[in-house]
Amino acid sequence: MADKLGGEGPIGELCSGFQLLVDADKGVITFESLKNNSSILGLQDLSDDDLRSMLREGDFHGDGALNQMEFCVLMFRLSSDLKALGHEFDLNDNPARP
Ligand SMILES: [Ca+2]
Question: Which residue in 2, 36, 60, 77 is deepest, having the highest Cβ count within 10 Å?
């Protein structure tokens, strides 16, 4: 699945976290699934409020959950924020347009 969405680049890696956090029954990331699986991504130190604001920030449609596209966009934005803080992420290795 992640292969189809993002290939091998950093975007694909960012999106692949979705599979770790998704609520298998609902097919989206909910507050509960995020909280239950947060330790997988090293997010266990985040408070409930932090997790909620993460969901809010990525939730375009206002349903309180993140689908895969919303999660990818959120992760991309968070990684861009990290980049701004001085961490290097190579997000420009997609083939150039013809
Ligand atoms: Ca949503």
Answer: 2
